[in-house]
Amino acid sequence: MARRGRGERTPLNAEINVVSLIDVMMLLMIIFMITAPMMTGGVDVALPKAVSRPLDTKSPLVVSITRTGQIYVDDVSVSLAEFRGSLRSLAAKSGTDAVALRADQGVDYGKVVQVLAVMQAAGVKVNLLTEPEDVNK
Question: What is the CATH number of the domain that holds 107?
């Protein structure tokens, strides 16, 4: 390697070192892959435990009833009258005749019956969602 004289300048290196950026990108991708399945959206409902089989198909329309009796259709709060008027069109728009019902285990039974009656009148297939029960106890 030859020595440079006093007046000579070192040539500029215009390349960006992307190795550290790729490392950060891969780390973020791994973090998102691990945390994405844990981030299930929806209404916070304590489902009752029961021995049941899993659903064959995923129902895109989910109706939730909270402990206080509030009705949610896919995370949107609705009254019973709004639910009665819009269920048939929402089920048709979702492209399926099946609706998943998530009712909190502490909700009043009468409220669940009201919602089920609206679903029956709309002519949709109802899937009741539960938490798996531990049968080893």
Answer: 3.30.420.270
